[in-house]
Write a structure and sequence with these properties.
alpha+beta; four-stranded mixed β-sheet; elongated
């Protein structure tokens, strides 16, 4: 079976027997650059972590964000990241796999 590079990166995030990954794109029709639109749709109290401040600012200016929710090894533990691009979400998730901390951003 042939997968494109993005599919290959997503599949690499799923080492467990019961691994799951879900990708969402969220768009707001608020005025571009308005923090209320996209921030109302993606809140940290929902367990979603922004990849970094720069990605959050880009998403606000575009009024569009990508969210990657994945269960790396089991359906019992999930991690979620948001960014202005799908690639930034995948990169953060990949970094998680190479860190020892249970943190999608690899922060100490």
């Amino acid at each position: 079976m042939n997968f494109d590079p993005v599919e290959q990166e997503l599949l690499a995030l799923l080492p467990g027997q019961f691994s799951i990954a879900m990708v969402s794109v969220i768009k707001s029709n608020q005025v571009p650059g308005s923090a209320t639109g996209i921030m109302d749709l993606i809140a940290e109290d929902q367990g979603i972590t922004w990849v970094n401040d720069e990605e959050q600012k880009k998403a606000i200016s575009q009024q569009r964000a990508w969210v990657l929710l994945w269960y790396p090894t089991t359906t019992g533990v999930n991690l979620s990241v948001a960014a202005a691009s799908l690639q930034a979400c995948i990169d953060a998730a990949t970094a998680f796999g190479s860190t020892s901390a249970n943190d999608p951003l690899g922060t100490p």
